[in-house]
Amino acid sequence: MNYVVQPGDTLYSIANRHGVSMQAIIQANGLAAPGNIYAGQRLFIPLPVQPGFPFPPGPFPPGPFPPGPGPGPGPGRPLEQRVSRLEAETDQLQRQLRRTDNEVERLGQRVNRLEERVRRLEGR
C-alpha cells in the first residue's frame, strides 16, 4: 500500500496507524534511518503477513477476570466460528487490496510513460 507522508508524521506514527513495524517500513523503502522521512514523500507500507498487530503485547493492568478460560463461548462455538470466518475474510480482502494497489501503481507508471512520450513528440 502506498502512503504519502504528511506534515508531523513520524515513522512510528505511520507504522502504528497501519499496524506494521517501523522496521518493516524501513526495509520496504530502503530508508537509512527512521528520522529520514519528509512531508510529501511516498512510502510503501507493507501489510502485515498475519492478522493482528505485529508489536509484542505490552503490560496490561489486571482485569476483573482471572487469566485463562473465562465465561463465554469456548472453541468450536458460534462466536469462535464467526471470528475465524471474519479473520479469513479480512485476509482475503487484504490480499485483494494489495493486488489492487499494485495494479494502480502499474497503471500510474504506464500513464507517466505515455505522458513522457507525448511531451517528447510535442517537442519535435
Automatic annotation (TrEMBL):
Coiled-coil regions listed: 83-124
Pfam families (UniProt xref): LysM (PF01476)
Domain LysM intervals: 1-45
Superkingdom to which the source organism belongs: Bacteria
UniProt cross-references to InterPro entries, sorted A to Z: LysM, LysM_dom_sf
Family annotation (SUPFAM superfamilies): LysM domain
SMART domains in alphabetical order: LysM
Pro residues bias spans: 55-76
Region (Disordered): 55-80
Alphabetical keyword list: Coiled coil
Protein name, entry field: LysM peptidoglycan-binding domain-containing protein
Native species: Paenibacillus oceani
